[in-house]
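Page 47, continued from p. 46.
Same chain as before, 95 aa.
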Amino acid sequence: MTTTLLSESEITAALDSLPEWSRSGDALTRTVEAATFPAGVELVRRVADIAESANHHPDIDIRWRKVTFTLSTHSVGGLTARDVALAREIDRLAR
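Result:
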């Protein structure tokens, strides 16, 4: 998967298809509220497996049952298709 920065129109289109996500500067963010603290930690573990296999790692903040994921491709300084793909995987796991 390419690590070319997305254009503003590509970012807008991606966010249109990712309604749980928002943009914060050069990153995508989403907070998931899990049913329990262990369920939130389990979600993080499952995301970690996917992120490790893709070699693309999100910033993750766990606050009791709320887990916030922040995605950005630091090596190119912004949003790429890799971030959008990982956001879609996080959405799938969070269902």
